[in-house]
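Input.
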Amino acid sequence: MPAKDTYHNAVKNALLKDGWTITADPYFIKYEDAELYADLAAEKPLAAERQGQKIVVEIKSFIGRSLMYDFHGALGQYIVYRNLIQLTAPEYTLYLAIDDVVYKDFFKFNSIQLITDENQLLLIIVEMKKEEILQWIN
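Output.
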């Protein structure tokens, strides 16, 4: 079982505050010879007559040796997880949860926005101290 990210509980609590139900902590991804763990899976009912939303959330703190180095790792992990989830559980949508400060100070760079757009990276921006979701970026 992988270690939990520094912001794991803050993101989990932010999702709960936003009306999500945590369905897996961690979420196990199994495809043939690959066994991986994303941080969380959650579900949010929309209405009794409609199908609810299902998400898998990978949480990244970006507190390593550099933001760019952490971004390389997070992007690669995101792409691998997304590809395997599309094959094994296509009803789920994968999101990367990050701190609002990292979003403002790094993800707003033109080069990073280009890469996130090209790779269709979905983000959840979380204010970690208040444990609140500030923005969903699709």
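The beta strands are 21-24, 27-31, 34-38, 40-44, 53-59, 93-99, 123-127, 132-137.
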